[in-house]
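Changelog note: in this version the structure field was regenerated for every chain. One regenerated record is shown below for reference.
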Amino acid sequence: MMKALDALRDMDVSEFQALLNYTSSRTWAAAYHCACRLDSLSAPEKQTIIRVLQSEVMAGNFIMGVGVTFYENRLIVPTALRGITKLVLLEFIPNPEAFLAVVGDTKDGTRDAILPRYVGDWWTKWDPKKPAESLSLEDVVAIWESQVIKHPIVQTRSDFEVNIAALPKPELQKAHSVAQDAMVFIDAELEANFNQLLAISENIVKREALREDLDKLAKRLVDNEVSELPL
């Protein structure tokens, strides 16, 4: 464990955020696989697979705790790790529907998106007769180090984000004023777009009415021509 702690201690904030994102992504992938398989497993098998998943979750939370201690508000906790932690700690064997609802929530999936390949992906090789062992903090950190070498992770989202809570009062007031101006502008744009859509909708209705009138007129002309034909 000391080796893992030494590795964490040597990371700067961007490296720590990358590790936390990876841990969340890994937990997400494992949890999704578990959720899909849960109904097909016996009660003892469910307990075993959830126990291994919990070891991933607890390692991720330990990493998060160390990171927050070091870097406080500069670290951002990914959505998946937060949601899955709540679920597997509140319920020893989560309800499959609730499980799928949590792992299917992708609203913040750019930071901790599921990757094509993982080092040590025990969930894809799961065999109830030969279940994987629970993972330790040292296991997860070693897996991360190996992952970076074998399957480099492409960053799809900038880690530059404004932490509003850390701003002093004058900057908060300025940010609030800018946000209000932006909302006024957005409201005006929405209203203008709505009016344009309304005008388009009215024109479509008028066009359909005109088309119906033309069809009726054409039919009337045809009927008149037919009626005037000599018998």
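Spot check on this record: The chain has two domains: 2-161, 167-228. The chain has seven helices and no strands.
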